[in-house]
């Protein structure tokens, strides 16, 4: 961890020293930047009359059907998990009884 902190500190100091050196400040005087922005717009006659609504159209009947199928699948998976857990517990119980009997 100490090595990592040392490397980060050296990197930060190096970045500060090399970018804020007086030689660089004297070599290139600062000039204000000039930026022009232009926006191109279509003439009124070429614009589309209607715009499409964003995103898909969802049908509530299909959504309810998909939700019910998803719920059914989750219930089946949960029931299967409970059955497998019961098998594991039952098997451990039988194994412990055999170990005590030997």
Number of helices: 3
Number of strands: 0
Give the overall pLDDT as a whole number.
77
Report the biggest beta sheet as strand number plus sense, adding barrel if it closes.
none
Q: What characteristic shape results from the CA principal axes?
A: flat
Strand content: under 5%
Determine the oligomeric state from the structure. Answer: single chain
Low-confidence stretches: none
Indicate the structural class. Answer: mainly alpha
Helix content: 55-70%
Q: What gap, in angstroms, lies between the N and C termini?
A: 54 Å
Q: What Rg do the Cα atoms give? A: 36 Å
| Topology as a string of helices (H) and strands (E) | HHH
Structure description:
The chain has 3 helices and no strands. The chain starts with a helix and ends with a helix. With 102 residues, the chain is an all-alpha fold. It is flat and about 95 Å long.
What's the structural blueprint in terms of helices and strands?
Elements: H1 2-19, H2 22-27, H3 60-101
């Amino acid at each position: 961890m100490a090595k990592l902190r040392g490397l980060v500190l050296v990197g930060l100091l190096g970045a500060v020293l090399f970018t804020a050196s007086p030689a660089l400040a004297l070599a290139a005087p600062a000039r204000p930047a000039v930026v022009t922005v232009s926006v191109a717009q279509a003439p009124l006659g070429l614009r589309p009359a209607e715009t499409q609504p964003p995103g898909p159209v969802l049908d509530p009947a299909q959504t309810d059907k998909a939700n019910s199928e998803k719920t059914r699948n989750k219930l089946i998976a949960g029931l299967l998990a409970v059955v497998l857990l019961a098998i594991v517990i039952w098997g451990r119980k039988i194994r412990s009884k055999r170990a005590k009997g030997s």
